[in-house]
Each structure stands twice: as structure tokens, then as C-alpha cells.
Amino acid sequence: MSNLSQRILTGFVYVSVMIFALTKPIYIGSLLLLVAIVASFELKKICSKQHIDFDLYPTLFIGTVSYVSILHPELIGIVFVSIFAYFISQLYKPTKNSLQLLGSLLLTVVYIFVPLALIIPIGLQSGNYENKMLIGLLILIWSSDSWAYISGRLFGNRKLFERLSPNKTWEGFWGSVILTAATGYILSVSGFGLNALEWTLLGVLTVFVATAGDLFQSMLKRNSNIKDSGNILPGHGGILDRFDSILFCLPAYYIYFYHISPLLNS
Fold first, then answer.
1. According to a count of CB atoms within 10 Å of the terminal CB, is the N or C end of the chain lower?
2. Angle between helix 76-89 and 98-108 (nearest 10)
3. What is the pLDDT of residues 187-217, one digit of tens each?
4. What residues contact residue 153 under an 8 Å CB cut-off, 6+ apart?
């Protein structure tokens, strides 16, 4: 099977699974927790390439507890107790890599587990679970990447951030801003739950944040001298390769819906 065929097939399966999982909070919550765990293994590999120590199993435990506490805030105390206990455990280790272990643990929790857990609070911000709105947000993220690629191929000339991503161009970026905003407007007239202004603003926001997420993941991989974070998704690479934009966009959406939108609608 050619690489293009693999990409198309994997992309179809990925989109289908994500849309199906969004039908119920328990489905998407379970799926993204699994995604966070697999992504942690990939981040460990990236860290090892840079000779950064990574304490996998304590990281997975604290990450999972943090993930669950986002959905059940009454459990937040367990997160602090777990982190404190891990800090104390470092006192009894003779190694000199404590800062690396603590840094990689906190990076994993903040970069992977917490952002993915925010998808359910975002879906529940109106009181009822709005899976169609969540699908619309994913469409914006996927559109942002696609429009940037198409615009860059057609008009790309000036490099956006050549040191980290030599294929990205300013023309592709601004083309994506315009076309993703237009995609947001189309979502607004297609019954995806928000008005035209909000979907258009979210379209613009998505491009800026998704691009930052992509560049951040490119930085991690380039510093580790690897092309893909993994090979679990044929034709696409690893979980972090596919979720890099989502990891940055979900916190941005959470801030928008819980802090900015109320001000705009007041």
C-alpha cells in the first residue's frame, strides 16, 4: 500500500473514531485518556533522544489522576498528594537527575493529560453535552491544517519558521486564517450551535493556536533528531503528530468559552 493510501485510510479511520467517540462523554473521555497514555510513551522516547530522564510509571499515574480530577474536581486533592509524594520520593534516590524527572513529569501532565481532559468541560459548558459543537471545533482544527497546506502549496514563498518547520509559509498561514474563518462561518449556518461571530472568531483563534502547537511538536522532534513521534498511525506517524494542534487548541477553547465568551455576551 502506498504512503498516500495509508494516509487516506488512517485519516478516515481516525476521523470516524473521533466523531463516534464524541457521541457520549464516556466514550470520548475514555478514548482521550488512552491517547494521553500512548502519547506519554512517545514523549518518553523524545526525551530519551535528548538524554532527558523520564520516570514513566509515576508520570502515567499522576497524569491519569490529573485527567480524572478535571472531570471530577472533588478529586483534585489526590493530585497534589500524589505530586507531593513523588517529590518526597526523590529525597531517597541517590541519583542527580531529580530536576529532569520532575520536569518531564510536569511537562507530560501539563502538555498532554490536562489539555485532553478539557474536552468534556468544553462540551458541557452550556449545561448539556454539546457533541455537535465539539465536532465543529475538531473540523476547525482539521481545516486549519488542510487550508494551510493547500494555500502554502499554491502561493507559498516566504518561510514561516524555517528552523522548525521548513514547509510552512506565511502565505499558507494567512490563507488558513481566511479560509478557516470562512469554515467557521459555514459551521454557524449549518446548525453547529454557535452564532456566526463566535464560529468566525474561533476559526481565527484556531489557526494561531494550532500552528503554535504544530511548531512546538516540531521543536521537540527536531531537537531529538526524529521525523515522527511514533509509528502507531500508518502514514501519519505517532499520536503526538496527529494531536499536536488539539493539545494546544483545547486549552484555548476552554479559556474562550469559560472566560472570554461570557464577556462578549454580557
1. C
2. 160
3. 999 989 889 999 999 999 999 999 999 999 9
4. 172
